[in-house]
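Weekend entry, working from home. Most of the wet-lab plans are on hold until the incubator is repaired, so I used the time to fold the two sequences that have been sitting in the queue since the last round of cloning. Logging both here for the record. First:
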Amino acid sequence: MAALTGVREVAEAVEPRESVEPRESVEPRESVEPGESVQLAGSAELAVSTEPVARDLLGLRVDVLGGRGELPIAGPLRNTNGTLWGGAGLAAAIAVGEQVLERPALWATLQYISPLRVGERLDLVVEPGRRGRGMSQAVIRGTVDGRLAVIATGTFGGRGAGPLGEAQAPADGDGEPRLVAPPAGVHPPEHGAVRPLPAHRPAAEGMHGRVEQRWAFPAPRSDRADGQQDQAGDGHSALWLRLREPMPVTAVTLAVLADFAPVAVSVALGRATYVSSLDNSIRLARALPAGPVGGWVLIDVRVEAFVRGVAQLAARLFDEDGRLLATAGQSAALRIPSQG
């Protein structure tokens, strides 16, 4: 949710996580296998998520038969203000929906009702709606100690494996329509200027510190160490993003990475700006996982409007080959720090 956008940071089978510091408020998982029952304080038994990205990136627990999940809000999931990274909430809702409904996400949106702070636990319950032969729709409600915190809706499934609903997916580049492309002038990740981590420790230990960032467009001024612009821009910017812990590119990882969209707010205003996510949305554009484990994802963002203290954002996410992975949107409440 809230974050300092001037310094906002954010895959083959996932490797063991011994080198990663244990998550705050979450019991160590090294001895727990996917599907094994675990006991969480104050909860019924839940199975560790069988989806490796949801398990290792989010620390999500899922009870498939009960149609619910639990997300302990630990340090690695926080933003610069100590609250839940906005995209992590959407990612958790997607992961619970996919596992309970047994269908991949096509589209999902999440509305934040109240703040979610480190040390709390988000309880997610899937309320299935219409279920067709190929697609399911559902509402996913999230509460903290009985308090409504988030509401998500989504569509899961689809017909066939191909982009037009065919039984078979075409080989890469063989008949798959490409309707959009990355913007011109994008620097490849190896040539992009590194966007540094936040200076203060809590932010660097949260989601910011788990994602590499490199400027793709526009080129940051060489005389600014933080990569920000000295003057207002047109609200169009792009970043290359890569998880430091290699994972497949899935709907879950894309939902987390899409929450870097507010970087464009600082580019548009020419100064660092705090934002709080009001809603996060994503629409998947291809079957996932896609691309190599540990690959870069390009997020191309535009600030479309500022209205009554809220930034309206639209983004596209591409792989390194320029294939569209997803489109995303976000409304973010602004708080501009005083200068001087």
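Second, folded right after the first finished:
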Amino acid sequence: MKWVKEIFGRLWAVWAIIIFMITMIIFLIPVAIFCMPLEEPKRTHRFILYSRIWMAVYLRLILCPLTVRGKENFAPGQNYIVVCNHNALMDVPVSSPAIPGGNKTIAKAELAKTPIFGIIYKMGSVLVDRKNDKSRKESYMKMRKVLEMGLHMCIYPEGTRNKSNEPLKAFHDGAFRLAIDTRKAIIPGVIFNTKKVMPHDKSFYLLPHPLRIDFLKPIEVGESDTVETLRDKAFRVMWEHYGGMERWRDGSGNYCV
């Protein structure tokens, strides 16, 4: 019956794209009227509020409802560097609306060129061209500005999608250098099941499955901390959070909860 699943996964991907386009066009109306005229950071706060509603509707319509745990770890009046694992394109619509309060996500500059979607993409992101040294330096300064405005900054320290069978791959230093420079605490966000919804070894394929993100306790920046110690702390607590869950591997080798 494997062929049935293959056909269904591609048909469901068509359904997901159609629903995404319809809901995106509807979403653009209040964004254009009530978000774009505002100055930052009010623009981002309102944009995330609308995004949260949009994604709640969209994910339910494609039968991928999202459960968010650990929002109490965000102290009122504080902003954080949020680091999330990265398994699939689905991670951004899961993490950004789930983070309590206004936030921006580090994102690839190429997708900003997409018609219509690019407008939304740019509004919620700090764009970076990873192949361009100047772009990387500029994006770092923009992330600092995001934090200075009182917004959260969401970063995927694995850099690119984790295509291995392990929960995490090695972290890059950027998020942790930002924490050292700004003295902002780090909140790890562990995303479950996006790899099952969008397997990395299949193109144009999507399966319905409940999603979840767990926000863990903040990692404060200590006086003796370095980029390396912060990076290792975040990696360890995120890895152990996977290990502490009841888990199993499905037929494709993915971790499921």
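Plan for Monday: verify the second prediction. The helical segments are 2-35, 42-61, 91-98, 117-123, 133-148, 174-182, 194-197, 227-243.
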